[in-house]
Each structure stands twice: as C-alpha cells, then as structure tokens.
Task: structure prediction
Amino acid sequence: MAIQISTELLDGCVLGILNQQDYYGYALTQKVQESVSVSESTMYPVLRRLKKNDLLTTYDEPYQGRNRRYYKITPEGQRQFGIIQREWEEFKKGIDKMIGDGQDE
Result:
C-alpha cells in the first residue's frame, strides 16, 4: 500500500531539508526521495509554489560550464516550517493513538 503524502506534508519535508542546508533542484529531489515516494515532475511545481509564497529563494552557482539553481529557505519559510512541525506532531499523536505506536501512554 502506498500512502499519499499531502501537499502540506511535502512542503514540510522540503522546508525541513532546506532548513539544514541549500540544495539544487535535482539533489533536493533525491534527498526527498530517500524518505518519500515523489516524482521529479511533482517536485518542481512544489518548489515554484514555495518560492512564489516567499518561503524559498533561489540563487545560481556555476557547475561544469552550466548554472545550478540552488534553493534556500527564507525567514518566512523557517516560520512556516515551525508551524508544520507543530501540526505534524499533533497529527502524529492522533494517528499513533488510533493505529498504535508500540508504546503505552
């Protein structure tokens, strides 16, 4: 069974990764794919939307005669990431109560 990831959760994954360090698009997609099943064609619209909402900014760096576009989290993106983290914790607690987390409270 493949569990679908919501837009908000995917945003949180991207912001969480970029909160640790900047990544160029392909490397960021690979990093997300280590934990979540998401296609490259899904990632770029997410990045454009996050940038449009001022949660990310971009800059270019030369690499082997071409430019790589790097994504960097903004202060507003960091605030939004904090909100997503808190909402995730509440959501996770609720799901754990229903399907079990292997721990008794």
Remarks:
- The chain has a mean pLDDT of 91.
- The radius of gyration is 16 Å.
